[in-house]
Amino acid sequence: MPPKRRTPGASTSKAPPTSKPRQSALAKEHSIPASTESEILEAFSLFSQPFPSEKHGLLPTKDLRRALIAFGTPPSSASELQDLIEAADPDETGLVRYEEFVGIAALKWHARSEESQVEEIDEAFQLFLGRKGKGREGEVRITVGDLKRIARELKLENEVGEAALRDMINEANGEEGAGKGVGRGEFEGVMRRAGVFS
């Protein structure tokens, strides 16, 4: 039996599935998500000038700092700005192509991301400590007492016994003993293994 024909006025359309923007080859090359590349393009476009053979125009090097500020990754110093200009405009034409701008903006974005992760790990470590104190080796460490305090604050003290807390410490510090506690580096390792930070 032949397939049925649809009547011209009949509509069987469904709403198109919402999808996130596709990552371009340039974004893949610099390991940035498509949304970040869109932000980079927006910052570049604020200061770029039209140029016939360049799809996105060209950015005068005098505006590189302003474009990076618009993207949220300002140069940290005049010498860093000079290094970025030299990298983006090695021929000293006074103009930066979009592809070069993506490269330096992505580099700054990755550096910012790593810095913010370190700050977040430090803040989380301090939350576990709840106080400043040095362990046996002079390093500030999370102890079983710290975990008991957190269990109390979360009203979990009846559900999580001391043996479980000691096991947590031992797992985090590589079975060196619950009395040793967990240092900052070990804490970061646990957070990364747990997938909290990549």
Distance between the termini: 56 Å
Largest sheet: 3 strands, antiparallel
- The SSE order reads HHEEHHEHHHH
What percent of residues adopt helix (DSSP H or I)?
40-55%
Strand line-up across the major sheet: 1-2-3
Give average pLDDT, whole number. Answer: 83
**Total helical segments:** 8
Beta-strand portion reads: 5-15%
Instruction: Give a count of the beta strands, DSSP E runs of length 2 or more.
Output: 3
- Output the radius of gyration: 27 Å
Global structural class: mainly alpha
Low-confidence stretches: none
Give an account of the 3D structure.
With 198 residues, the chain is mainly α. The protein has 8 helices and 3 strands; from the N terminus they run ααββααβαααα. A 3-stranded antiparallel β-sheet has the order 1-2-3. Helix 2 runs antiparallel to helix 3 and helix 2 crosses helix 5.
Brief description of this entry?
The chain is mainly alpha-helical and 198 residues long.
